[in-house]
Amino acid sequence: MDYCLDVLEGRLLAGKLIKLACLRHLQDLKKIGNNNFPYEYSADKAQGMVNFAQMIPDVSADKVLPLAKFQKFIYAMIDGWIDTETNGARFKTVYLSMARTNSKTQIASSLALRDFLLGMPVSSRQIVEASNTNEQIKTLYNYTRKAWHALVKTKWFKQLKDIVVDNSQEMRIDSSNTFLKKFSSEGTTGDSVHASTTIFDEYHLQRSTDYIDSFSSGNVQNPTAKVIIISTAGTDPRVPMREDYTAYSESIEKGNLDNEVLFLCWEQDKDDEAFKPETWIKSNPLMEVPAMEIKLRAGMLTERNKQVAAGNLPKFLVKNMNRWQNAKKNSYVELSSIEEAVIKEFNMHKKSCYVGFDASLANDDTSLVFVFPYEDDKSNNKYFVYQHSWIPTKMAGGIEAKSKQDAINYQHAEQEGFCTISSNRFGTVDQDQVYNWMMKFIEGYKLNVKAFCYDQWNTGTFVRMINNQFEDVVPLLAIRQGAKSLSEPTKFVQDNFYQGNIKILNDRVMKAGLSNAVLTSKDNGILIDKNMRSAKIDMVDALIDAFYEGMWHFTEFTNEKEEGKDNKNPFEGMKQEDIDQYYLKNNAF
């Protein structure tokens, strides 16, 4: 409780998420005894874990060092809260995150070692230390072994010297059928393991939950079982840890975080705090120790200046500020700009909009984007963007494989209304279905479509249907896919995200597309691209197509009629052989 009071009363500087975690702890203490709150807090159990951790000599210093307040807080939260119905642990899932070099490995090894030596159940305990690669888990496992070798020399544990067997692969107590083993996703899964404690290090690198699920699925009957995720933030916003971070952050802010989830995230509140060293304790809680504050600050200043000089500030933000970043080289939209663009709702009824369309080829998605220009309550020009995508499954071999390949949970996105998964027996996108959905959407909201903008390739059937419906009513703009046509809207979209003028819903398909897009230079202009084959940017292509005309909404300019051209004709200016090739491609589709 001391740490919580120090944080909330301002004696220790902390970020918003840790303040909320401290507030949650104090509020939950007041709930104890309520019929609808089946948990209690055992100060004795919390102190027991703290006492154990304090017995372990520091591996680097080879002597016992006092624990920092934040370390005691972590141990107390994990061990102190009890489920009164099962007498087991309250928190089945623990999300623990902070910047590098802040004793994450020490904390993880202490938790693993205590559960291995003194945990529950009395026998057949299975402690798992896992990570992405053999090399990564070796660091945590070797630290745990060294901690044990130091602990067994103390008067409290020397009697266990001949009972515990340890080697480079595992630690065992044969008399109680207990083990502590290291695992990596490069090796075997945990399907045959019934882990009582699973600690997953560097979780930000996992692209799916399959591996960690293989451990948690075997412990459902163990009331003391828990999964502890311990990791710094990462550079890929599409991964499961980022999804957990977003969900937990929103839930703890609303006060409705799952009662069985412990969410402790030490991070800077804003990216610009990289230039405010006096705030760095927010992501580096070890700085509460004066000697460590001096050491950490000096090293981090050097690292920050080096990364800034090299143009790699996102690298510093991730590793040393614990800030999630879209750290691809030449990222189109910064992750912070994407998150700040999210709003809860927008009334699309009877609004004017610009429609962008990008059709799929093979494994690509098909996307429709609607851009709604509007003025906010201060008469500032803004744009709300809504998208819907159609997801083919043929090339991937099913929606589960497609979701894993693209790092997007399409099934959840479909439930949320942001995409439609192919349902025909071929696993392809049916343009009739896309057309019918679009017409229902336009008619349902009574939209005033100002222009329909599309990439001219592979859209023949769709455009013919649109032309029949909207001829002489809505401009149909076939947009050439090159820097000459797209450079200006591409830059317009990027600038307006940065300036906060574009708003979106909490749409995982859109956020993934924006995160995947990178900028490339071509023909004295810029275009968007992706840096890996599986990265989906189709809705971003449709978005830029829509802004090709939509960016002029608040002006007197338009791209509808270029001098000497009729953009309603998608083949205007094309050679006959190009037109023939287009129809060959379209028929193949």
UniProtKB/TrEMBL annotation:
Record-annotated Terminase large subunit-like ATPase domain positions: 70-245
Domain of life: Bacteria
Stored Pfam families: TerL_ATPase, TerL_nuclease
Stretches assigned to the Terminase large subunit-like endonuclease domain: 264-549
Molecular functions (GO terms): endonuclease activity
InterPro entries recorded: TerL_ATPase, TerL_nuclease, Terminase_largesu-like
Name the record gives this protein: Terminase
The species this protein was found in: Liquorilactobacillus satsumensis DSM 16230 = JCM 12392
